[in-house]
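Lecture notes, unit on protein representations.

Consider one protein chain, 243 amino acids long.
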Amino acid sequence: MVDLTRTPAGELDVPGISPWLTGYLARPEGGGPWPGVVVIHEAFGVDDVMRRATDRLAAAGYLALLPDLFTGGRKLGCMVNTMKAMRAGQGRAFADLEAARQWLLASPDCTGRVGVLGFCMGGGFALLLAGRGYDAAAPNYGMLPGDLDAAVDGACPVVASYGGKDRGLRGAAERLEAALTRAGIPHDVKEYPDAGHSFLNDAENGPRPLRPLMRVMGVGPEPVAAADAWARIERFFDVRLRH
């Protein structure tokens, strides 16, 4: 884990960040610099599934940073507070994510172009952050904000993926596609009919007692849809972050 309150050049000046903010950094092989990507975890927090997703981005040639939004607190309380911040569009979670972006920008291993990618709760944040200094955003099955048109006004290019069997986000892909079109934002939005929530995960995660219920609800990996979604993300990021 890396200390996201400091860079090699000194402390980050980002008001409101968590005093012990840490993150998981995945670095590509070979010599940099590389484009950066801030990875935003699901509501279950930083786990092996999220770390492997971060590693995947590094293998594709990105300096990938997964900040722990639940740093320094009990997971349930942190989850509640983080979700509140997402709904409000402001708060410590946004400060922590800005610290992660600034950490990448300050790194000599980063080219200065930075994308954001999120899953579930993180997908909601990624969409809200699309207009806050990023060069590309990849919200995956993220909750849509109440004022969607305002949220995407001035956004960076967006590549988004949703599952057709995700009952909690029914119609989200269509609504997001329409809003991005109205705003004139370059985008690639796709809904996968056979996928549910969290279909990009490469394994089940979350509390073990809940996993049987999650399976019944159609939450979890869907390898065919995931392979296509990852390919779209990597192509989109290649165009927006490398050129």
